[in-house]
Amino acid sequence: MSFQLLVFYVLAALMLFAAIRVITARNPVHSALFLVLAFVSCAGLWLLLEAEFLAITLVLVYVGAVMVLFLFVVMMLDINLQRLREGLFTYLPLGLTVALLMVLEMGLVLWARNSQLRDMPAPPPMGADYSNTKELGRLLYTDYVYPFEIAAVILLVAIVAAIALTLRRRKTTKYQDPAQQVAVRRQDRVRLVSMAPVRRAEPPPAPPADAQAAGQSPGDAR
């Protein structure tokens, strides 16, 4: 077994383990961190395929930006873990069935391709002046320009749908209407009420000083 094949098996095992832990970890923060490990392992596989641009893009965009945003949102939200696990066993058989079908499909595809690729020679190593970024751009904007544009439109529709779902009206949420705030009048907010004056009750007169000194009441002093 060559060193490159050994690295491939190690990275593939790490990515498979991280992907399983993403959906089985109890803590959402741990799930996001395992997803970071899966992205890094996938970037290593891209490096083995001599696709340095895709590997760096995966690390910078997903690990450096998207996953930081995920961690920030997960750590700032007060997620009720008990409520999230309520429907786990209800949908577990369906999820396992779909996962098994996907594994079977990928196995059939890999088996069919391996049966054809066994006799094919390995691709020759590229030179030092080879730029996979330039080659990737050439393929995207020439041979695969229509799938690339369709994917861009689908992502745009997904962004618009996410914004529309976020801006939906809820009964428990308070909203501000700037037009109503500008058009408000004093008569609508302030009410002047006229009230009759209230007289304060006068305190009883204090007893004379000589009566207090003698320990007598004011009536006895008279």
Short description:
The protein is mainly α and 222 residues long. It has 11 helices and no strands.
Features:
single chain, 222 residues
Reading the helices and strands in chain order gives HHHHHHHHHHH
| Unreliable stretches covering 5 or more consecutive residues | none
Beginning-to-end CA distance, first to last residue: 125 Å
> So what's the overall shape?
elongated
Radius of gyration: 38 Å
Counting DSSP H or I runs of 4 or more residues, the number of helices is: 11
For this entry, what is the oligomeric state of its chains? single chain
Helix content: 55-70%
Chain-averaged pLDDT: 80
What's the number of extended β-strand segments? 0
**Structural class, please?**
mainly alpha
Largest sheet at a glance?
none
Percent of residues in β-strands: under 5%
General description of the model:
The chain is elongated, with a radius of gyration of 38 Å. The chain is an all-alpha fold. Helix 1 (3-24) packs antiparallel against helix 2 (28-48) and helix 2 (28-48) runs antiparallel to helix 3. Helices cover 68% and strands 0% of the residues.
Could you give the topology of this structure?
Layout: H1 3-24, H2 28-48, H3 52-76, H4 81-84, H5 88-117, H6 132-140, H7 145-166, H8 178-182, H9 186-189, H10 209-214, H11 218-221
Helix pairs in contact: 1-2, 2-3
